[in-house]
Predict the 3D structure of the following.
Amino acid sequence: MERWLWISMGILFIIIIVLLIKIYLLKKTVKEIERAFMDRLITDTNTLIDISSSDRHMLHLANTINKQLRKLRTERHKFQQGDLELKNAVTNISHDLRTPLTAICGYLDLLEREEKSKTVSRYIQVMKERAETLIALTEELFRYSVITSTKNSDICEQVIINSVLEESIAAFYTILKEGNIVPEIEISKTKVVRMLDPFALSRVFSNLLSNAIKYSDGDLKITLSDNGEILFSNRASGLDGVQVGKLFDRFYTVEAARKSTGLGLAISKTLIEQMNGRISAKYENDRLSIYIFFPDIEI
């Protein structure tokens, strides 16, 4: 009896060892699939998931994931192709609109020099303003298509964010004054240095200042902290959480900005991400806050 007990315990021990080995191999295979899956999501490659295990369940799982990866790759290529075609179409349309709009403005300038009634003069002025708005919107479309089609990481250099921000605010001083906006500015005395494209950074600040002027209820707070976080904050009672959540979507505009293409913040987001930065928006107590952060560098 005792002999059979030892035999049973030995068999049970062997089964436990086999099961532990099986579990170890399954966990190893799962990790292989996880690493391979994450790699396939990040890289655009035709290589599918290949595992070392011969377990039929794991092989079935890998095959199922491979089928979905093929579908995902097909959809990704369709999206990329469609996005490229859209950018090309925007570039071509904006380019084609430039010439007639320039001609229209030219002829309107000539008409202004002719003798005319006050009513005609008023009509010409209205047409000129509308034409200038169209030119500005066309230029914005063209710049967006160019920015999203190129990467600026190759032209980055050491930039003092404090200086670029101060220059941008100074450039908008007159516009802010006309809008009765007195900005509250807190810029760190410590030099915040990052590897950035200075022209792209200046464009980002210009877009954010323009955005603040459009939506502000009369105030604006600009902060640059020691760690490099930049904040643009203003009261904007005309917005809501849903609208703020879509501010960085291309071509999205709110009713308060009818002369906008909805590309200003989308351009800013693209430029910031090209410079390895982050941008986000928060809306609390009728106050819109836009945060920008660029990672620190070793000098």
Q: What stands out?
A: The beta strands are 157-160, 184-187, 193-196, 221-224, 230-235, 278-284, 287-293. The radius of gyration is 29 Å. The longest helix spans residues 56-112.
